[in-house]
Task: structure prediction
Amino acid sequence: MGDARARIGSGAVVGALLVALGAFAVPADVARAQVRGTIVGPGATSYPIAVSPLKSTSGAERAAGAFADIVAKDLDLSGLFRVIDRGAYIENAQTSGVTADTIDFRDWSTIGAQALVKGTVEREGEGLVVEARLFDVVEGKQIGGKRYRGNDDELRRIAHRFADEIMALLTGERGPFESRIAFASRRRGRFKEIYTMSLDGGDLRAVTRDGSIALAPSWSPDGRSLLFTSFASGNPSLFASDLGGDKRLISSRRGLNLGGRWSPGGRAIAVALESGGATDIALLDPDGQVMHFVTKDRGIDVSPSWSPDGQSIVFCSDRGGGPQIYVVSAQGGTPRRVTFEGSYNTSPAWSPKGDRIAYASRIGGRFQVFTVSVGGGDVKRITSTRGDNEDPSWSPDGRYLIFSSTRDGSGAIYLSDAAGTRQTRLTPSGGDDSSPAWSRWLE
Amino acid sequence: MARSIRLAAVVIMVAAVAVTGCAKKKRITDESTITGAGATGTEESLTNEGGSLGRYKRGLGPEEDGVLKDIHFAYDSYELDGSARDVLAANAEWLKENRRARTEIEGHCDERGTVEYNLALGAKRAKAVKDYLVSLGIASERLSTISYGEELPLCRDASEQCFARNRRVHFVPPSE
Result:
């Protein structure tokens, strides 16, 4: 747990010390135009890229391979790239150059690479200095480069940040990998607990050890803490916890205190509170005091999700009969119904781009993930599998979704691009994983 | 038994009670103050040893029926049908004969639908049952409600028969 706090605390240090290598200033527009024609979005024809282990000095050998492994896994998960197997690489990472004028690009074009990641890692005191560069193999030019300083614990994060940078350089939009996923799981026994992990499945951390039922996690905007509901004391109460598991009680009104979500500005928590069987959406201040009720009726209103501007809330309500998706002003007022197809639509999530809402819909007796425009039209089906696909959550860049699915048996977390073209299982089946929540970019 | 201790300590204590098995079948009502960064709050421990959560914590599955019989619901419904009303009438008779008995009404759902919606649906089921028992003359003070949504199923196979068993209201064995 001490580790977790140190890691979170020093995250800012990575940020502060991140220096764009001015000397490499992107000769970019040419190179970017070159590759942009190929990469249009997840699901398009994948772009062949080689990710070489870094060239390392003494004491940094392990980091050299680990960095390349993490970047390669992220690029593969993105669906935009085909990462060429390392066994095919001709150049020796330790003896070859890492700049455009010292790399023999024919060694890379021969194996089919159109882009190449190379760089160096050195020990500096207790920490590491990573210089990573992205090259256009066809043009024989550097597209971009970054230097990062951090301790060994932060290597994973540095690698995720450079993967996001590669996506920014080649698609014009930052990638989603410097982030974390929270979810509920029974992977370590019969109790449902909250965990977090990197998108690539690495760095798994337990947040709760309640030995009870903990569920419905969500992130603070800065990615440093979580909200979740736990039956640890018998009543389903709302808690906040840092990633090391140091938790505090937010709301323990008798009845459900369910599904808290921080507003984008971090000033309010939208939560579903139950009283006398009726469940309504309320806004709490950060200490758990009710600021006002957004909805108030006799039915079920659950699963609030904020619009990115913090002005509106999308939620699930049975006010019209069965469960449907509605949008309402965060101040309250008359909700506007968004979904009209299907008799059971639930667990809405508002895209960080603001334009679409993902949700789960019952079709043929089981649940599938869909998206709909905020205005209510243009319904798109994302999943078409056996089992149930539920609880979608958007990536920070709005290009991807994660959700739980029982398509392979017990619940696991899956990643998909926002069009549903390519779907990848992120967690092992058998752990009964559910309710995934994707953080914003970590600060 | 008001105490001012950290939540972690409460959890450990409750677990220890469960493990040593020294707990009587009665409600634990330790009130604890939770101290955390920036805020304090109080939370009363409501874990009912005889209830489905108390059993689950002790490694036992939820009980089906009891001296008060379970009632069942249609999918995504909290309406009481004829057979549910018949069972509740019999349960009300028992509660009238045992005038000091209190019970907790647990609302449960099948696995279909999301965790959060099912918790709210379970609360509706528990409330519908409580209201009906009150209408039959049972004092509301004797009846508490809680929803476990789809979290504590009786069975886990994806069959209509199993789903139907799990869509239930269960009564915690009454205590005086």
User: Anything to note?
Assistant: Residues 61-78 of chain A form the longest helix (18 residues). Helices of chain A lie at 2-17, 28-36, 61-78, 106-109, 155-171. The first strand of chain A starts at residue 19 and ends at 20. Chain A touches chain B through 53 residues (CB under 8 Å).
